[in-house]
Each structure stands twice: as structure tokens, then as C-alpha cells.
Amino acid sequence: MSEFHALVPAAGFGARMGHELPKQYLPLAGKPMIAHALETLCACPDLSTVFVVLAPDDTLFHGYDWSHCGEKLQPLYCGGETRAESVANGLLASELEPDDWVLVHDAARPCLMQAHLSKLIAELRDDAVGGILAVPVADTLKRADAQQRIACTEPREGLWQAQTPQMFRAGLLAQALQQCRNVTDEASAVEALGLSPKLVASESTNFKVTYPQDLLLAELLLQQGK
Ligand SMILES: Nc1ccn([C@@H]2O[C@H](COP(=O)(O)OP(=O)(O)OP(=O)(O)O)[C@@H](O)[C@H]2O)c(=O)n1
Ligand SMILES: C[C@](O)(CO)[C@H](O)COP(=O)(O)O
Fold it and tell me: Which residues, by range, are in coiled-coil regions (predicted)?
């Protein structure tokens, strides 16, 4: 029977955060940011393994105590220059069966909840393609001109913001990333094969910590138990 695994790309630096410490190691609600997502994933009974893809020269990860995560947590020091490369390298190193499901989740989305994981897995486990957590766009959308004035208002109907985890069969995802590396998420590579991943409705609390101002919101949510 197919197993479910998580793969967490964590080899980025966080240029938009602008801190000397890589974003995933910034302190957040009493632990490094990366620990929140890893602990949630390791506590999910559906997941057999949680691979974390680190930069080859990462010297920080092994400095923390991960014993509470147990044997599920498997660090792989094979991160690449881009997120897509890190995921592709991690898939290769993980040696998963082609039919196994892999849930790719950003280290920079610390507010992931068990309920999000359960919903994603329940909605996709019998799906032919796979899919992603996402939220419908809630704001009015403006397109800017070169002077940062409004060129037009874009219709938001049918637009969703992509989140993670993004859940695909390991073999399909490896093939997709082999053929298409110039992407910012896994779904884009699968779409390039001509397939249509499913959108599974999530919540805005599962946002990506990108800019310094995102840290306070994440901290508040994590203190509230999300
Ligand atoms: N070469 C890279 C780049 C990014 N990531 C990971 O991809 C996730 C989402 O990316 P993002 O938030 O864009 O992180 P960074 O690339 O670190 O941020 P920035 O774009 O601001 O530099 C993060 O967990 C990040 O560590 C990765 O594994 N390998
Ligand atoms: C995968 C992702 O988090 C979905 O929203 C996003 O695409 C990552 O993109 P980034 O440009 O690396 O932040």
C-alpha cells in the first residue's frame, strides 16, 4: 500500500526577511521557526517519514535537540540553489516508491495545523493527480503601471493563493520537476505536464513568513495554539 511522507525544503536564506540568520532558524514562540512545521508533521499519524532538505553547508540544524520528533525526522543535506532544486534533490535522496504520496511543505509556514493536514490527505488520497492547500483571494486586485499607479482592476473570480503542503505521488512529482525547474511551487511543475491539481480550501492562518512584519502575526497565532 502507498505510504505518505512529508518533505520540507529548508535550504533557503530568507533574503526578503533581511536577517543575518537564515529565516527558518529565527526564534519564533520559543523555538526556531522550522521546529513548528517539523513538529506538526512528525505528530501526524498518517505520515511515515518527514524529510527535511537542508543546505549542504548547514551547520545549525544539528545544534538543536530533535529527539522529541523521533525517527520519523530525516535530515537530507542536499538543498539546491532554488526551492524547486531543493525539492527535486530531496526527492532523489529520499528514495521513495513512485506511488508513495509526498506532502511538500515550506519550513517558513509554521502555523500549519493537524486539521489542514487531515483535510488535504482525506480529499486527495484517492485523487488521480494530487493537489494543494490554497485560499480564495479575498481582496480587490489592482495591476500597477511603471509609476506604481493603478493601471486596472483585475477580476478576482476563480483566483486562489497557493499554500503548502502540496501533495503529489513521488514519481509524478520527480518527473514533473525533472522537466520543469523554473517554478515557484510543485503544482506549477505538475500543471506543465498538462495535469490539473485540485485546490483544497485552507485558511489564511497557514501563511508563509516572508517579511519581518510576518513574524509578529505568526508569534501571536502560535501562542494562541493556532
Ligand atoms: N534554494 C532554496 C530556496 C528556498 N527553499 C525553501 O523554500 C521554502 C519557501 O521559500 P521562501 O519563503 O521563498 O524562502 P527563502 O527562499 O528562504 O526566502 P527569500 O525568497 O526571501 O530569499 C523555505 O522553507 C525555504 O527554506 C529551499 O529549500 N531552497
Ligand atoms: C510554494 C509557495 O509557498 C506557495 O505559495 C510559494 O510559491 C513559494 O514561493 P517563494 O517565491 O519561494 O516565496
Answer: none
Candidate from 82, 105, 164, 177 with most ligand 2 atoms within 8 A of CB, to mutate: 164
Q: Is 106 in the pocket of ligand 2 (CB under 6 A)?
A: yes
Cβ partners under 8 Å of residue 123, min gap 6: 131, 198, 200
The pTM assigned to this predicted structure is 0.97
Provide the domain limits for residue 98.
4-223
205: its cell numbers: 492562518
89: CB partners within 8 A, 6+ apart: 53, 76, 78, 79, 80
Average pLDDT per block of 10 residues along the chain, 226 residues long = 96 95 97 98 98 98 96 98 98 97 98 98 98 98 98 98 98 97 97 98 98 97 85
pLDDT tens for 80-139 read 999 999 999 999 999 999 999 999 999 999 999 999 999 999 999 999 999 999 999 999
Q: Tell how far the Cα of 23 is from the centroid of ligand 1, in angstroms.
A: 8
State how many domains the chain has: 1
Work out whether the CA dihedral 23, 118, 75, 197 comes out positive or negative.
negative
Kindly identify the ligand whose nearest atom is closest to the C-alpha of 161: 2
State the CATH number of the domain containing residue 34: 3.90.550.10
- Of 222, 199, 225, 19, the closest CA to residue 109 belongs to 222
